[in-house]
Amino acid sequence: MNPLEHLRWPFFDDRHREFAAALDIWAQREVRDVHGADVDALCRQLVRQLGEAGWLRHVVGGIAFGGAADALDTRMLCLARETLARHSGLADFAFAMQGLGSGAITLAGTPEQKTRWLPRVARGEAIAAFALSEPDAGSDVAALQCAAHIDGDHAVLDGEKTWISNGGIADFYVVFARSAEAAGARGISAFIVEADTPGFEIAGRIDVIAPHPLARLRFTHCRVPLTQRVGAGGEGFKIAMRTLDVFRTSVAAAALGFARRAMQEGLARAASRRMFGQMLADFQLTQARLAQMATTIDSAALLTYRAAWQRDQGENVTRQAAMAKLAATEGAQQVIDAAVQLFGGLGVVSGHPVERLYREIRSLRIYEGATEVQQLIIGRDLLKATGR
Ligand SMILES: Cc1cc2nc3c(=O)[nH]c(=O)nc-3n(C[C@H](O)[C@H](O)[C@H](O)COP(=O)(O)OP(=O)(O)OC[C@H]3O[C@@H](n4cnc5c(N)ncnc54)[C@H](O)[C@@H]3O)c2cc1C
User: Fold this and answer.
1) Would you tell me how many other CB atoms lie within 10 Å of the CB of residue 311?
2) Cα 377 from Cα 154, distance rounded (Å)
3) Residue 304: CB within 6 Å of ligand 1?
4) What digits encode the pLDDT tens for the residues 52-73?
5) pTM confidence score
């Protein structure tokens, strides 16, 4: 099964096709199966490599600020994540977080903020993080409590964030805090907090099943100049949602990349494993399993690139992106589980490619809106048409 076959689909332009084919060659050569114990060092190195090779220009918007184009191209982001995820989960993570962490600046930053951060993000010289979740505000993100009191020309941050990817290695964090211009979601603002700001600290690191830099953050009377507020006061929630709207479809693409790799590995194993006097692939039960895996992958790919294409046409894709994330992440989990089964005992040996995929995929069904949250988004959108 050729993992680049879908590039012929009408969702893409030739620049997308050339980009994906070139990145595939680069990733095969430079980052294939990169993993190891020191994820901080690996991620720093991956960000540098991705920056030096020019791939990170696609995660920032604005040619004047080091971006590949003036607006973020969702299909490029998705093709990049799918391709990188197929070769290395950590490379995909490093790429995606540069985009998610700087997305608010691309979408709503001042020219000064863009000039200071976006070119460095694009060159892989500054590492970005997106700090929204809190211990008591994950799915219910509008309940966040980290406070931002305005004191003259500064905001003073007090509170905690958790589950922050790149926590501990980031040079700056876009932090969403309650500035209380209004109640609920309208009283949240976004601030750029540099890692060496007094009053900011890493409260603890978090180990997860697919290791990558992840931390709890603590703010104690952390003074941030108002020039580092992204957007107007009270606009933070809207900016966070706009950022997630871009990147949610790319989570689907990453899941697709993991699933494609599992398919490749599973096919190769089925074709080479001898048992009962024939090959594993000769059994109809195996063929049915492979057929289901391939069909799940193609369904996820169609939904993912439909959402990406539609967003690039300037359309609202809230429902389509939610469908893509739901189908691709849940589907990838099934495909990867099937691949583990094809490998038998080998499939659960630590460090085996399908064992790593089995761990990599799990959190994608939780972050950037758990599956249940995507279901609610789709359901509400459908019911809107009934006037409810
Ligand atoms: C590896 C990883 C990386 C992350 N990186 C970041 C990051 O960089 N920045 C950041 O801000 N956050 C990050 N997160 C946080 C992530 O976005 C949250 O974990 C996620 O939003 C879920 O919040 P929670 O963990 O508090 O779970 P909860 O909100 O407690 O939800 C628990 C479960 O409840 C279910 N659920 C949720 N809503 C509903 C509902 N309405 N109806 C029924 N069931 C429901 C879902 O199954 C959900 O998994 C990361 C998380 C992980 C695991």
Assistant:
1) 24
2) 36
3) no
4) 999 999 999 999 999 999 999 9
5) 0.97
